[in-house]
Design goal:
CATH class: Mainly Alpha
Radius of gyration: 20 Å
Order of helices and strands: HHHHHHHHHHHHHHHHHH
Low-confidence stretches: 1-5, 403-409, 411-416
Helix content: over 70%
Largest sheet: none
CATH superfamily: MFS general substrate transporter like domains
Structural class: mainly alpha
Number of helices: 18
CATH topology: Growth Hormone, Chain: A
Distance between the termini: 13 Å
Oligomer: single chain
Number of domains: 1
Mean pLDDT: 78
Shape: globular
Strand content: under 5%
């Protein structure tokens, strides 16, 4: 960041993007506890069919995300982060409106396609932080981003679950309103973080999944961490796709209890991401913090897979909260090796990885859930534990203190 602003403007810019992320996560969290119940309602109150349908819908969402995430990442490198954030929130508002109105599964499918195209707000916010935060504060800034993500999961699912007991569609209307509010906030208040002189020309060669992922070959560490991220994303997707079905089927949760459980997860996430990430990374270093986070995640999912009762399941939550340390540590390691003009491409590449594994996980986890019930109800969580454990093993090999890698990769995958 050759034209980086001073400490005061940096803090102000970070405060602006934190508000954007908070509003986005509140909207997202509102829909989570009731989405499984909406699928079930539109599937004729057949839980198994609803879980299977949600898996295929998630597959369509992931396919759109895989194709369009690098396009939006490259557009943010060319035109700035602000317009992409605004576009993303307008698209999400349209998606929530379709879900609120949907008289059939076909309407929900259309909404998922729209959301897949425009769901770049979190990755673009990560690029915004890479533009704005000084190198020694990046891990803490990414940790705060994770804390705000968790705040959305504290308030959003709780409010969404309570609103869902009034009317199943009400949380979607409120979520759509928050997304529109966020779009207006971005238009009128949010400053741009990427100076014009640091922007890169738009190129279709980079604005596609293959081209975006080519950036990750810029150093051995980037490539190794990309493998860690892929395995980690695969394991992470168990809760978004099956928790609602899993909790209602195995433990008898209703909408409100699903929301309250997710709220409890969010409280722990705020504590870890907002208060512990910065100190832990300073004391342990980014590499050891990454390993601690991944080890905690594998242990937490193992406990939840075993859990014969809700109390046992909740015992795994603190370890899942500690798992969130790995994200800021890994992001900090990666953004330090990419030039300012390619931060959007990096985040687009990571989003492509997420989209790539999300092509498999909606069907994978929902089908494992269907096949595992009732003989092996914890099967989806055993699978998640294995995937995150594999990420830990890869990270232990590639994220070594003296691993050879280039210091900075430019917009075209070469040293600047």
């Amino acid at each position: 960041m050759s034209t980086a602003p001073g400490a005061g403007p940096r803090r102000a810019a970070l405060a602006f993007i934190y508000v954007t992320v908070l509003l986005d996560m509140l909207a997202f969290g509102l829909a989570i506890p009731v989405l499984a119940f909406l699928y079930r309602e539109l599937a004729g109150n057949d839980t198994a069919r609803a879980a299977a349908v949600s898996g295929w819908f998630g597959l369509a969402f992931a396919a759109m995300q895989l194709v369009f995430a690098p396009v939006l990442g490259s557009l943010s490198d060319r035109f700035g982060r602000r317009p992409v954030l605004i576009l993303s929130n307008v698209g999400l508002a349209a998606d929530y409106a379709l879900m609120a109105f949907a008289p059939s599964l076909a309407w929900l499918f259309a909404g998922r396609l729209i959301a897949g195209v425009t769901s770049a707000s979190f990755s673009t916010a990560s690029a915004y932080i890479a533009d704005t935060a000084p190198p020694d504060k990046r891990a803490a800034a990414f940790g705060m981003l994770g804390a705000l993500f968790s705040v959305g999961f504290i308030l959003g699912p709780w409010v969404g679950g309570e609103l869902g007991t009034i009317d199943l569609r009400l949380p979607f209307w409120v979520a759509g309103g928050l997304s529109l509010l966020n779009a207006f906030y971005g238009f009128f208040v949010l400053p741009e973080s990427l100076p014009r002189e640091q922007r890169a020309p738009f190129s279709w060669k980079r604005a596609n999944p293959v081209g975006a992922l080519a950036l990750l070959r810029g150093s051995p560490l980037l490539l190794g961490l990309a493998a860690v991220a892929l395995l980690n994303y695969l394991g992470h997707d168990v809760n978004p796709h099956v928790f609602g079905f899993y909790a209602m089927e195995r433990y008898g949760f209703d909408e409100a209890l699903v929301g309250r459980t997710l709220m409890a997860v969010g409280v722990g996430g705020v504590i870890v991401s907002g208060l512990l990430v910065g100190p832990l990374v300073r004391v342990l270093g980014e590499r050891k913090a990454l390993l601690l986070g991944l080890g905690s995640g594998a242990l937490g999912f193992g406990l939840q897979a075993f859990a014969p009762t809700a109390l046992w399941f909740w015992a795994g939550v603190p370890f899942i909260n500690l798992w969130s340390i790995n994200g800021p540590a890994m992001q900090s390691l990666m953004v330090a090796r990419v030039a300012a003009s390619a931060q959007g491409q990096l985040q687009g590449a990571l989003q492509s990885l997420r989209g790539l594994c999300s092509l498999a996980t909606p069907v994978l986890f929902t089908q494992v859930f269907v096949l595992g019930t009732p003989l092996l109800a914890g099967a989806p969580y055993w699978l998640a534990a294995v995937l995150v454990g594999a990420a830990l093993l890869v990270a232990a090999r590639v994220a070594r203190p003296h691993a050879g890698d280039r210091a900075c990769t430019g917009a075209h995958g070469s040293s600047p």
